[in-house]
Recover the amino acids of this structure.
């Protein structure tokens, strides 16, 4: 049983990917990190020596501090944050327990593009910067959702004319996605969302199920999933509601929050109610 100042692997895994997820700060020292250069999804790396610095820079409400073994570094850093009145816990069993439970760990350097991405996320920089085509519909909302919920909670997104995506990426040191000729793009019959969950080792059962729905809607393969038509309809409707792409992105985040929770927690649930028919009680689908 964890102490009152610890959170279990299962508890943290249930929170990650939801709007209620805590900020995860990895204080693992370089020698330990080099043995296994992967991190818990959405974690930022920061030295335990000045653990209070990111808390002062960012609007952080709840923190889970992680190190390799869960001894002095994470527990001491979490205790320092509690001195500031913050809700702060360490992870029971730490990164070893997370790994041994088969939870997702993001590799720091699988490709040159991921090197750039990791330098943004796994450091004390506030956020990564991405750029894609304007007027998003499905993939260009789903991918930002994935980034913010599972990789970089503070990720920022630029929406520009299709012909200018690569030039803007170069000039503004942004990561281009969902356009031809870049790393983060459609591959054969897979959409950009598929590419991201594969390259970032986020291919959990729940996200793979979600990817089937997104791919069906994004590639107009509506027979692949009963939910694909609904997602397409809602996405097209949303795009008519907003002329500002950033406002559309913020509104669209709840689509994928809800769809993820349905995939994870409610896909077998039916909507039924009780109907009184004389002496009989019937259940009807509604």
């Amino acid at each position: 049983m964890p102490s009152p100042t610890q959170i279990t692997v299962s508890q943290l895994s249930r929170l990650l990917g939801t709007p209620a997820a805590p900020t995860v700060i990895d204080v693992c020292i370089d020698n330990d990190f080099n043995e296994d250069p992967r991190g818990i999804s959405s974690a930022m790396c920061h030295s335990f020596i000045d653990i209070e610095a990111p808390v002062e820079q960012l609007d952080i409400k709840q923190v889970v501090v992680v190190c390799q073994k869960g001894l002095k570094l994470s527990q001491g850093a979490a205790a320092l944050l509690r001195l500031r009145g913050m809700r702060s816990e360490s992870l029971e069993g730490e990164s070893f327990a997370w790994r041994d439970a088969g939870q997702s760990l993001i590799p720091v350097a699988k490709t040159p593009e991921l090197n750039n991405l990791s330098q943004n996320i796994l450091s004390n920089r506030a956020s990564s910067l991405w750029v894609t085509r304007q007027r998003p519909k499905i993939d260009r909302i789903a991918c930002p959702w994935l980034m913010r919920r599972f990789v970089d909670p503070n990720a920022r997104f630029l929406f520009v004319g299709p012909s200018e995506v690569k030039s803007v990426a170069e000039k503004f040191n942004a990561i281009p996605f969902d356009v031809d000729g870049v790393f983060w793009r459609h591959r054969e019959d897979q959409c950009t969302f598929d590419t991201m969950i594969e390259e970032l080792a986020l291919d959990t059962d729940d996200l793979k199920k979600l990817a089937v729905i997104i791919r069906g809607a994004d590639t107009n393969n509506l027979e692949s999933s009963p939910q694909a038509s609904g997602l397409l309809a809602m996405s097209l409707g949303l795009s008519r509601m907003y002329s500002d792409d950033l406002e559309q992105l913020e509104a669209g985040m709840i689509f994928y929050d809800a769809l993820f929770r349905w995939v994870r927690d409610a896909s077998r649930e039916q909507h039924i109610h009780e109907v009184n028919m004389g002496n009989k009680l019937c259940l009807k689908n509604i």
